[in-house]
Amino acid sequence: MRRLGLFATTCGLLALLLEGCGGVPSHTALSGRACLARLSAHDISYRPTDIGDPGDPHCAVDTAVKISRIHAALNQPATMSCALADRLDEFEREVVQPLALDELGSRATRIDHLGSYSCRRQNSRTAGRWSQHAQGQAIDISGFRLSDGATVSLARDWNAEHYDHMHLDIGPERLCSA
């Protein structure tokens, strides 16, 4: 059980690096056909989707896709920007799978998430800054299922808004805190 906690903690810390801490270049520039071609080349299970008129210009999604599987399946399909899907693929390949194999001896076969696109402000407040979820540039990952049947849950995180998930986003802000 201790190893599962170490895996979850390490994934969270490495997600901070992947989402932009330390000067990692932004993937938000990847869009349109070039982005879709990249998803296809990486064998990601997706389909372009139309989110319709979001009713607020803050909620426009560049090259919206619905993802059901990166390499590991998702517990439920997720709508997001193509750029986030590409970054999620990178997170799985470069962080999740190597850590799962090294620390737990099994591959991750499913990524559990609480959602991605949602036209709302940060923390679902009625005022304030817009969430990266509003542009399909964030996903909340709550855990993983491993090939041996074990599950990893991120039930303990480092702040009140994210106590049960890690928020992974590719937005322009580069705030790194614990």
Radius of gyration: 16 Å
Q: Which structural class fits the helix and strand makeup? A: alpha+beta
What is the strand tally?
A: 7
| Residues in helices, as a percent range | 25-40%
Shape: globular
Mean model confidence by pLDDT: 81
Distance between the termini: 23 Å
Summed up, the domain count is: 1
- What fraction of residues sit in β-strands? 15-25%
Number of helices, counting only DSSP H or I runs of 4 residues or more: 3
- Helix-strand string: HHEEEHEEEE
Q: Any low-confidence stretches, pLDDT <50, length ≥5?
A: 16-26
Biggest sheet character: 7 strands, mixed
Could you characterize the architecture of this molecule?
- The protein is α+β, with helices and mostly antiparallel strands and 178 residues long.
- The protein has one domain (2-169).
- The chain is 28% helix and 24% strand.
- It has helices at residues 2-18, 32-41, 82-104, and strands spanning 45-48, 64-69, 73-81, 108-115, 138-146, 151-153, 166-169.
- Strands 1, 2, 3, 4, 5, 6 and 7 form a seven-stranded mixed beta sheet that branches.
- Strand 2 and strand 3 (73-81) form a beta hairpin.
- Helix 1 (2-18) packs antiparallel against helix 3 and helix 2 (32-41) packs parallel to helix 3.
- The longest helix is centred in the middle third of the chain and has 23 residues, at 82-104.
- Residues 16-26 have low confidence and may be disordered.
